[in-house]
Amino acid sequence: MSARVSIGVSLKMYFGHADARRWFARVAELAAQHPAVADGRVECFVIPTYLQVLPAIDAVRGTNVVVGAQDVATADSGAFTGEVSAAELAEVGARLAEVGHAERRRLFGETDDVVAAKASAALRNGLVPVLCLGEAERSSAADAAARTVDQLRSALRGAPDGRVLVAYEPVWAIGAPEPAPAEHIVTVARAVRAELDRIAGRDGSGVIYGGSAGPGLLTTLGSAVDGLFLGRFAHDPAALSAVLDEAGALADARAEVVA
Ligand SMILES: O=C(CO)COP(=O)(O)O
């Protein structure tokens, strides 16, 4: 377990261009002033639409905030109309690529094979895949853990070495009023972390939780997770700032354990 805590935000398709730019400016400002982000104890990443990736990179330049994409092509170049390659994302300065989000699986038919090909494409090009995994229907924590670990194995089968951030997102907790219960998240996150520790070539990897996450949750979960993947509840920069404060406190507590 590394001491660093990761806090990511996907903007999905919520913001238009002007609103997104205003939000990036606020995030850049608060990250620059945030001691735990400024000194690297907390990794902060934002994942806007493809069209917003370049303005986001411009807005956060000089801060420790990094930018990712919400999807990535399986191929690196060629006749793939509408796709964006990991090679180009890396070329312009994106650092992460979200892979296999529940909305892409459900609305756009992404299969486990497609998810695996996208994870490989990201790793092959030096991007960190934010690998979104989680059970589709509410079940026991043990069952959810088994399903999520199976998804992880499938997504990384044959993938190049490199860091991976697993975003454990139970599908039924996405877009909900509340996150999944803490005991449920802790059980699944532990199983995912154990699997990440078992497989070679994944140094620096971790598991973050997403699905109606917001202020207060990270303090409840503690070191069972390596951070959070936020959606709606980070649209208000003040809420994101509160989560970064919690992440800083968690990183400090973890540094004492690691030392
Ligand atoms: O899917 C999510 C992040 O990728 C979570 O979104 P919400 O927090 O809005 O449910």
UniProtKB/TrEMBL annotation:
<dbReference type="GO" id="GO:0006094">
    <property type="term" value="P:gluconeogenesis"/>
</dbReference>
<dbReference type="GO" id="GO:0005829">
    <property type="term" value="C:cytosol"/>
</dbReference>
<keyword id="KW-0324">Glycolysis</keyword>
<comment type="pathway">
    <text>Carbohydrate biosynthesis; gluconeogenesis.</text>
</comment>
<dbReference type="InterPro" id="IPR013785">
    <property type="entry name" value="Aldolase_TIM"/>
</dbReference>
<comment type="pathway">
    <text>Carbohydrate degradation; glycolysis; D-glyceraldehyde 3-phosphate from glycerone phosphate: step 1/1.</text>
</comment>
<dbReference type="Pfam" id="PF00121">
    <property type="entry name" value="TIM"/>
</dbReference>
<comment type="subunit">
    <text>Homodimer.</text>
</comment>
<keyword id="KW-0413">Isomerase</keyword>
<keyword id="KW-0963">Cytoplasm</keyword>
<dbReference type="InterPro" id="IPR035990">
    <property type="entry name" value="TIM_sf"/>
</dbReference>
<comment type="similarity">
    <text>Belongs to the triosephosphate isomerase family.</text>
</comment>
<dbReference type="InterPro" id="IPR000652">
    <property type="entry name" value="Triosephosphate_isomerase"/>
</dbReference>
<protein>
    <recommendedName>
        <fullName>Triosephosphate isomerase</fullName>
        <ecNumber>5.3.1.1</ecNumber>
    </recommendedName>
</protein>
<dbReference type="GO" id="GO:0006096">
    <property type="term" value="P:glycolytic process"/>
</dbReference>
<dbReference type="GO" id="GO:0019563">
    <property type="term" value="P:glycerol catabolic process"/>
</dbReference>
<keyword id="KW-0312">Gluconeogenesis</keyword>
<dbReference type="GO" id="GO:0004807">
    <property type="term" value="F:triose-phosphate isomerase activity"/>
</dbReference>
<dbReference type="GO" id="GO:0046166">
    <property type="term" value="P:glyceraldehyde-3-phosphate biosynthetic process"/>
</dbReference>
